[in-house]
């Protein structure tokens, strides 16, 4: 596995402006995605998963925030330093994104067909007719029958699951090499969720894409991920290959997440929950941000930020429990 | 692919046919508004009256006839004749052509300017927004009638040929008409651009002109239709006022406004009501009908749209 990373993020810092000052929604995040790999980004809501994805896409609205530091290297080119026009030509073509809410991600007054062909026409300079042909193939590819009928219908006429399939079709329409999916199944029924995941996984295999899948659902992670990154309060606190991480979680937060995951055939009286809440991102002192909720909290945890430490091959954790220098 | 093809659930089939087109729904709601239909009916009548009517008239609009001056209504001249012996009914038709043309033309121009500038201001915000909206504010704080009078007076100074005054009047009216529309459009675009489907167009790497014309514009079409329709009424009124004072469309070109000008002379006002009552009624009914139609359209297009 000596494949080049298709996406490499170095020390990304994304801040949003708020009344109380700047919020570090993505705080010094570094990660990489190799060719053909599926990387899952997990964490509670509000921990900066979407902000990470939006930073990569260059979609942070300048009136509400900014990427203040770091590099986002897509196949070696820094997207953050790229000219607007050049970035636009890559977006939607070489890397594409699927959003959480399929119902609100499509324009209500345009037909599915118009929206599916749009980026094909934009990026591949095909004629309307050729684009329609491709659009119909895509509709078929994402597992919806009766392409012609779907092509001329409006978003409100389709169900959420079908709309998410359409969103996937749009995202893969120009054969991107990287697909970023931000909680693509969260807004859908459980039965549909599995179908959409299957679809994503199959498409990824067939088209040899890499995927950054954002989710808070560990069931999803177990099913599709090659590599897992756990975020907490804007920081990566643990990352590792999926089997390793599930078998051998190190960080108390990761352990908590895994314990909180319901398991079939193992019904417990009460589902485990991690006590406490995600801290307010505004007034964070140098500390382990999880310390307030951590049952292993030591004095150093409240005063110093734990560095990232390699535990095993590509399994890293940021936790004072695993620093030998610290004498307890 | 392992995924079995999914088809639209059969239960939604009947439902679908009903919903199949957004405009079909609008039409259904519109057909329920009786008053708006009356307005539409009357407007159609006025249009036909003005457009086709003259072909059935035995008189030419400029048919000056010194032997038939100031005749009261009769079987020959249903609405009498004016001081040059012209048939008032025929003149009313030609005047309708002018007044309606000015109204519709001014609407098209102000909708074009207003939509374009409103979209640009709302989408790009920042400096473009500042410039466009400050100009709009200035135009809106100046009372529009005096402004129109001044511009019209300047136009008279420049000795614009009579036939072309019509187009200048349209331009003038759209100049005072676009700011209100631009504001409405801008505020709608400001809220639209925060919607996810507009952000999704960024993620697709679409060029700005596609985002603005293919995605934003269709979403404000309902607003444009309603505001545009309502603005025709205002434009016709303003044109009438200008023409009444001899500053808009001037004789010999007839417009409803300059026909009412007859009421300026005391003797015509008291003794020859057929000269000024018909154009007055025409203006009144046309404007009322346009407003009824506009209100009906607004309710039909978007039942939740706020009243202006
Ligand atoms: N547009 C925004 N303006 C201000 N703060 C934001 C904005 N978007 C996200 N945030 C803040 O950034 C943090 C991370 O948000 P987000 O990335 O959406 O979390 P997640 O996707 O993991 O649920 C949150 O604290 C949120 O309040
Ligand atoms: Mg999110």
CATH superfamily of the largest domain in chain A: P-loop containing nucleotide triphosphate hydrolases
**Beta strand count of chain B:** 0
Which architecture name of chain B does CATH use? Orthogonal Bundle
In the residues of chain B, how many domains can be counted? 1
Order of helices and strands of chain B: HHHHHHHHHHHHH
Protein name (chain A): ABC transporter ATP-binding protein
Membrane topology (chain A): Peripheral membrane protein
Subcellular location (chain A): Cell membrane
InterPro entries (chain A): AAA+_ATPase, ABC_Ni/Peptide_Import, ABC_transporter-like_ATP-bd, ABC_transporter-like_CS, Oligopep_ABC_C, P-loop_NTPase
Describe this structure in words.
The complex is a heterodimer of chains A (328) and B (308). Chain A contains eleven helices and twelve strands. By secondary structure, chain A is of the alpha/beta class. The radius of gyration of chain A is 21 Å and the shape is globular. The mean pLDDT of chain A is 88. Chain B has a single domain (25-307), classed as MetI-like (MetI-like fold, Orthogonal Bundle). With 308 residues, chain B is mostly helical. The chains are: A alpha/beta (328), B mainly alpha (308). The interface between A and B is large, with 48 and 34 residues.
């Amino acid at each position: 596995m000596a494949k080049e990373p298709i996406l490499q993020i170095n020390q990304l810092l994304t801040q949003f402006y708020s009344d109380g000052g700047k919020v570090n929604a993505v705080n010094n995040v570094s990660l990489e995605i190799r060719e053909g790999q599926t990387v899952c980004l997990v964490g509670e809501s509000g921990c900066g998963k979407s902000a990470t994805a939006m930073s990569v896409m260059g979609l942070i609205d300048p009136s509400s925030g900014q990427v203040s530091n770091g590099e986002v290297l897509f196949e070696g080119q820094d997207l953050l330093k790229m000219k607007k026009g050049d970035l636009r030509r890559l977006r939607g073509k070489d890397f594409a994104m699927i959003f959480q809410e399929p119902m609100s991600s499509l324009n209500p007054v345009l037909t599915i067909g118009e929206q599916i062909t749009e980026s094909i026409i934009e990026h591949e300079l095909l004629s309307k007719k050729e684009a329609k042909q491709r659009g119909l193939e895509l509709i078929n590819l994402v597992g919806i029958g009766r392409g012609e009928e779907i092509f001329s219908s409006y978003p409100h006429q389709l169900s959420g699951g079908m709309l998410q399939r359409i969103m996937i079709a749009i995202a893969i329409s120009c054969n991107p090499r990287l697909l970023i999916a931000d909680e693509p199944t969260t807004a859908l029924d459980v039965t549909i969720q599995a179908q959409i995941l299957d679809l994503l996984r199959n498409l990824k295999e067939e088209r040899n894409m890499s995927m950054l899948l954002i989710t808070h659902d560990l069931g999803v992670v177990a099913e599709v991920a090659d590599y897992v990154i756990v975020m907490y309060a804007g920081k990566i606190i643990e990352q590792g290959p999926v089997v390793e991480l599930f078998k051998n979680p190190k960080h108390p937060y990761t352990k908590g997440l895994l314990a909180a995951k319901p398991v079939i055939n193992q019904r417990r009286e009460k589902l485990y929950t991690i006590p406490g809440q995600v801290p307010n991102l505004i007034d964070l002192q140098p500390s382990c941000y999880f310390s307030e909720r951590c049952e292993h909290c030591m004095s150093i945890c409240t005063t110093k930020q734990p560095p990232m430490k390699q535990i095993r091959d590509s399994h890293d954790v940021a936790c004072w429990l695993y620093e030998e220098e610290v004498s307890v | 692919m392992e995924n079995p093809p999914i088809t639209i659930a059969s239960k939604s089939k009947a439902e679908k046919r009903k919903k199949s087109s957004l405009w079909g729904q609008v039409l259904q709601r519109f057909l329920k508004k009786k008053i708006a239909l009356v307005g539409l009916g009357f407007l159609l009548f006025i249009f036909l009256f003005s457009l086709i009517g003259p072909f059935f008239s035995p008189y030419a609009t400029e048919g000056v006839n010194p032997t038939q001056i100031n005749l009261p209504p009769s079987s020959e001249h249903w609405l009498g004749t004016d001081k040059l012996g012209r048939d008032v009914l025929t003149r009313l038709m030609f005047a309708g052509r002018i007044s309606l043309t000015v109204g519709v033309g001014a609407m098209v121009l102000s909708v074009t300017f207003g939509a374009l500038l409103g979209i640009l201001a709302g989408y790009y915000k920042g400096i473009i927004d500042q410039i466009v909206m400050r100009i709009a504010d200035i135009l809106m704080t100046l009372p529009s009638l005096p402004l129109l009078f001044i511009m019209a007076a300047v136009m008279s100074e420049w000795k614009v040929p009579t036939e072309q005054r019509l187009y200048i009047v349209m331009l003038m009216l759209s100049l005072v008409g676009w700011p209100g529309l631009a504001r409405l459009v801008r505020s709608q675009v400001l809220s639209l651009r925060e919607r996810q489907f507009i952000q999704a167009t960024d993620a697709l790497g679409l060029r700005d002109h596609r985002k603005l014309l293919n995605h934003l514009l269709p979403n404000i079409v309902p607003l444009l239709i309603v505001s545009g329709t309502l603005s025709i009424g205002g434009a016709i009124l303003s044109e009438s006022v200008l023409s009444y004072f001899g500053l808009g469309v001037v004789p010999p070109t007839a417009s409803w406004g300059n026909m009412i000008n007859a009421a300026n002379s005391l003797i015509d006002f008291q003794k020859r009501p057929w000269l000024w009552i018909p154009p007055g009624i025409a203006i009144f009914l046309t404007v009322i009908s346009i407003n009824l139609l506009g209100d009906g359209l607004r309710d039909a297009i978007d039942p939740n749209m706020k009243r202006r």
